[in-house]
Amino acid sequence: MTEEIIIAGFGGQGVLSMGKILAYSGVMQNQEVSWMPSYGPEMRGGTANVTVIVSDERISSPIIHEFDTAIILNQQSLDKFEKTVKPGGLLLFDPNGITHPPKRNDIKVYVIEGAEEAARMGNPKTFNMIIMGAFLKLKPVIKTENVEKGLKKSLPERHHKLIPMNLDAVRVGMEKVKEFQV
Amino acid sequence: MGELKLMKGNEAIAEAAIHCGCDGYFGYPITPQSEIMETLMVEKPWETTGMVVLQAESEVASINMLYGGAACGKKVMTSSSSPGISLMLEGISYLAGAELPCLLVNVVRGGPGLGTIQPSQADYYQTTKGGGHGDYQLIALAPASVQEMYDFVDLGFELAFKYRNPAIILSDGVIGQMMEKVIVSDVKPRWTDAEIQKISGSWATTGKTKDRARHIATSLDLEAEKQEIHNHKLQAKYREIENKEVRFEEFQTKDAEYLLVAYGSSARICQKAVEICRSKGIKAGLLRPITVWPYPTKRVAELAHQVKGMLSVEMSAGQMVTDVRLAVSGKVPVSHFGRYGGVIPSPGEVVVALEKFINGGN
After folding, report:
1. Is A116 helix (H, G, I), strand (E, B) or coil?
2. Which of B32, B117, B347 minimises the CB distance to A61?
3. What total of structural domains would you count in chain B?
4. Of B134, B161, B183, which one is at a domain's C-terminal end?
5. Using CB atoms, which residue from B6, B181, B348 is nearest to A65?
6. CA dist A15 → A7, A9, A43, A159 (Å)
7. Contact between B346 and A64 using a beta-carbon 8 Å cutoff
8. pLDDT digits (tens, 9 = 90+) for B7-21
9. Taking CB atoms and an 8 Å limit, are B348 and A32 in contact across chains?
10. Which of B4, B32, B265 lies nearest to residue A39, judging by beta carbons?
């Protein structure tokens, strides 16, 4: 199994940290992982993206331009990365702020209202974990128990009290994700 | 076996420095390598191993602090990115001339000039063909993974002290910024004064005793004949390093008809390109120089008898390709493919370039 993922959105949405938690969770189940961020002159409100690869085998290139899954969190990223999903691959997006939704019909498109669900949970910071839950429902490449271990490993201890809330957010994402009709 | 951690290449450099018993780090921040000093500042090794971590006022200051530390037989290092290394070159030449062991790290970014902050491999000439003035060489290690970023700190120091010569880790923004799994080694204690005496006592400025002459760490000798003799000694050392310290890795070369030659992050991209080529029926292989100086010239020359052509893939306008051409010496066609100025090629682009090369398009 090799899963090649791009996560893209605004800086501040938790794009890079979501990738990091995915990568850490992969480590927890003895997989090979790579995490490669875009690190241009990024700024708050600008775009941020990260390539995460989780695999049973040694990872050759951490740099790839085609993905099994694209997790898209704003319009600019959708415009940039929709075409990079491999045929038959997965595109998961949050419709918040999307004016031109995905059009490809040779891939599977799913939607998760992450921003809205995070507001409903009363904590906008759970946003990225809701998105991650939605992804793991569609592609269970990582077991939930390993996500918990990944969170423990990647968060400083003073933040460990937030782990239950993050796991709740993962579950919300798993429940609320639905197919999108292109 | 040590602990398994997920970390950035830059973080791995810092962790490895602490773990291998480094005495001092002197640096000045610059993207894309600032996490090296940031990690050291967070880890506070001065409270545990006693390692000094100092942010100097400039790159010029840091390289000269290195000179001072190295002259005392201490394990000292600095890191920077391309424009910062350019500022250090005078000091690097002095360190090489005075035969002072130390470790340099260049996390290369796009140039020339201030260029960009994105990854590049355009400092190959600077690293392997001098950079600074005079006839000198740096022992240059090119890591292609975060684990190698970690491992090459210890190896770099080992080689630097073995040959009394500066060693450099030639990395780039990809390897510096990406995260991968790393197996962390146990902490080696820093050398004691007695150990320094034993290892470097014949030359280091450890304090003059009555039974020996003064030790002077200098690259200056105004008598041309003496300076030539010193140069003979340096050249003999460089030939010895060329004979003993060449390191490289091969991937699918056994039956290869076409060879990609790439180091660092380009080698990772090429590995995937080889996989794609093989699935298309093209017998491609990869030679990855691990030491870019000394260069695996002999092995490239050997492979020139086996393959039909070689493509050097670099994030530069074509620098290492000159070393490939020298080794191949016209035996088979050699070409170059690269993206540069901070742009990273995709494995697919490399495959297209190789196909074009095979079809005679160069």
Report:
1. helix
2. B347
3. 2
4. B183
5. B348
6. 6, 7, 13, 18
7. yes
8. 999 999 999 999 999
9. no
10. B32
> Does domain A2-179 fall into CATH 3.40.920.10?
yes
Q: For A78, left (φ over 0), alpha (ψ -120 to 50), or beta?
A: alpha
Q: For chain A, which residues lie within 8 Å of any Cβ of chain B, measuring from their own Cβ?
A: 20, 23-24, 27, 32-37, 39-41, 59-66, 153-154
User: Which pLDDT does position B252 carry in this prediction?
Assistant: 98
Q: 């030659």: which residue's tokens?
A: B261
Per CB-CB distance under 8 Å, the chain B contacts of A37 are 177-178
* Alpha carbon distance A142, B19 (integer Å): 32
In 3D space, the residue among B263, B226, B29 whose CA is nearest the CA of residue B140 turns out to be: B263
B346 touches A: beta carbon within 8 Å: yes
Residues 6+ apart with CB under 8 A from B178: A34, A35, A36, A37, A62, B8, B9, B146
Contacts of A123 (CB under 8 A, 6+ apart): A165
Q: A15-28 and A127-138 are packed helices; what angle lies between their axes, rounded to 10 degrees?
A: 50
Nearest by CB to residue B178, choosing from A40, A62, A154, is A62
Contact A39 B118 (CB under 8 A): yes
Rounded distance, CA A71 to CA A166, Å? 18
| pLDDT tens sequence across B43-94 | 999 999 999 999 999 999 999 999 999 999 999 999 999 999 999 999 999 9
Rounded to 10°, the helix A127-138/A144-154 angle is: 150
**Which residues of A fall within a CB distance of 8 Å from B272?**
60-61, 64
**Residue to substitute from B33, B109, B180, interface A, most A β-carbons within 10 A:** B180
**Residue B204 belongs to a domain:** no
Considering CB atoms only, which of A41, A64, A154 is closest to B347?
A64
For residues B267 and B172, membership in a common domain is answered with no
* DSSP H/E element including B179: strand B179-183
How far is A155 from A151, CA to CA, in rounded Å?
A: 6
Spans of all domains in chain A: 2-179
Backbone angles phi, psi at B24, to 5 degrees: -160, 140
pLDDT > 70: percent of chain A: 97
In a domain, B231, yes or no: no
CB-CB neighbors (< 8 A) of B38 in chain A = none
